[in-house]
Amino acid sequence: MRVLRLIIIIFFCLFGIYSIAMTFLEERQSFVHYSEIDYPVDKVFPQFSSLQNFTTWNDFFMAKRDASYSFFTPYSGMGSSLKFSNKNKDDEGDLFIRYSNPNRTLRYQLFEGKSENPYLIDVKFIPSGEKTKLVWYIHTPRRKLLERSLNLTAEDFFVKTIDKSIKNLYQLLGNKVDKDQLLASVKYDSLMLENREGGLLLGVNVSTRNTKDILFKNVLMNRNKVLNFVKSDLRKKDDEFGNPVLLTNPANLKDKEISYFYGVPLSKRISVSDNNFNFQTVNGSKVYVIYFQGNYNDRLKSIQELLKKAKKDTLRNGQLTEEFLEEPADVQSVKLKLSLPVYR
Q: Domain range holding 95?
């Protein structure tokens, strides 16, 4: 009993000392961190303002191997948000973009667990020629007295996470620059013949009204749905799947209602628990190709050129493939690769 009593006394003494020590710590901590990346601000900012992009290179999210994500509209800029959670629900939270001044400032709110007190993270973007300087203003949540020791390690954690994230972003943008250089060499409105390899697509079957106001928005919604599922639910990285594509019957493009399949190429068939998603096989073939640039609704003229060429050459055609060459945002300005498989 004496030993137990001594242990209890020691425990309360240590608890008292810890409690007194915590009174000398601020209930929240604020600090600033500076970083720089060798890419211009117009390339860097979209990687921060789109939360789907943000999770692919930010080390805080990349470290969550078994987490799933839900993204909410709008998918970029002020008002966008995401929810993350692992299977056991012991690592979950929400991230919001509360303010956005394009190419200048972003404000994030990060909630962890059930806490009602968020981290406040302001990122300032300073253009410097072909480089971008970043200033991070971090404010930790208000902590209860006995939780304030967490603030002692917060700065080290954020600095390490930011530095790793910037390295990841640099590598990601390097790959995008190579793609931009490839896009610069594309000849639009010229009809070409290419060989297409066969493959396997994972995606969704869609039917929607075929109007100028509805179709493009529907395509974007399902593109985001497929990418979100592949990246968040299946935890596939960008180099583990191909560019998303839309498959449709070109003969039905003027109907009041249109059906299409939107999917991403995968290297092999995997188990998928969501019944909304299914696999579709694409056979290898010769394809007529036109690269189109302009209003999405004006692409029909280029598609007609492909159909006329197939008819002139007395060839049958398969499903039309539409592939965005860069992230679509505005119906007025898209870049597409239109491919029509042909055979005798």
A: 26-184
Q: Tell me, yes or no, whether 1 lies in a domain.
A: no
Q: Which pTM was predicted?
A: 0.56
Q: Nearest to residue 265, comparing CAs of 247, 249, 253?
A: 247
- Dihedral sign from CA coordinates of 213, 218, 219, 224: positive
- Rounded-to-integer distance, Cα 214 and Cα 219, Å: 9
Residue with token string 């240590």: 14
Encoded tokens for 104? 């200048």
Could you tell me if 68 and 47 lie in one domain? yes
Per residue in 301-321, pLDDT (tens digit) is 999 999 999 999 999 999 999
**Separation CA 337–CA 29 (nearest Å):** 50
- Indicate the number of domains in the chain: 2
Q: What is the DSSP string of 212-239?
A: TTTHHHHHHHHHHHHHHIIIIIS---GG
Residue 144 has pLDDT above 50, yes or no: yes
Please say which residue of 166, 184, 202 terminates a domain: 184
Cβ 252 vs Cβ 331: under 8 Å: no
Is 15 part of a structural domain of the chain? no
Instruction: Report the alpha-carbon distance of residue 75 to residue 46 in Å, rounded.
Output: 11
282: domain CATH number? 3.20.80.10
Q: Does residue 258 lie in a domain region? A: yes
